[in-house]
């Protein structure tokens, strides 16, 4: 099977949709990480594991991005947190988030130290 090419379409506010060049929709709801979502759809459509190429609609570049493995990219997504910024993380299906541990609070980054009984780093100890 040849290397699939995915066309990314710009929506509003940094969100994108994706389709195949023949118009077959892959990502219909505008999202911020269309490359990983498009890879999940390609896996669901039965594409074999291998590279995939991505280009923005209207772009002069032949290819703007690529992945080496559709199946590996399908297992990832982008997460944005206040204290860590953007990062690539393992993708979890909707409904399975409850099984994950809650993230650290960005407002109390030292809460683990406080639970262990250590003094607060800015508090004077007598």
List the helices and strands and how they pair.
Layout: E1 5-10, E2 16-19, E3 25-31, H1 34-44, E4 52-56, E5 65-67, H2 70-74, E6 76-81, E7 85-90, H3 111-115
Parallel strand pairs: 1-4
Antiparallel strand pairs: 1-2, 2-3, 4-5, 6-7
Question: Main traits of this protein?
Answer:
single chain, about 130 residues, alpha+beta, five-stranded mixed sheet, two-stranded antiparallel ribbon, 3 helices, about 15% helix, globular
Task: Summarize, please.
This protein has 126 residues and is an alpha+beta fold.
Q: Can you walk through the features of this model?
A:
With 126 residues, this protein is an alpha+beta fold. It has a domain at 5-74. It contains 3 helices and 7 strands, in the order βββαββαββα. A 5-stranded mixed β-sheet has the order 3-2-1-4-5. A two-stranded antiparallel ribbon has the order 6-7. Residues 98-102 have low confidence and may be disordered.
């Amino acid at each position: 099977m040849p290397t699939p090419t995915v066309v990314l379409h710009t929506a509003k506010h940094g969100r994108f949709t994706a389709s195949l060049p023949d118009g077959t929709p892959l990502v219909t709801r505008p999202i911020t990480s269309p490359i990983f979502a498009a890879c999940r759809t390609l896996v669901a459509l039965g594409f074999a594991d291998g590279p995939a190429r991505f280009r923005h609609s209207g772009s002069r570049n032949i290819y703007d991005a690529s992945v080496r493995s559709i199946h590996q990219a399908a297992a990832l997504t982008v997460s944005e947190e206040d204290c860590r910024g953007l990062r690539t993380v393992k993708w979890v299906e909707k409904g399975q988030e409850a099984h994950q541990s809650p993230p650290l609070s960005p407002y109390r980054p030292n809460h683990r130290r406080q639970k262990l009984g250590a003094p607060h780093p800015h508090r004077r100890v007598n």
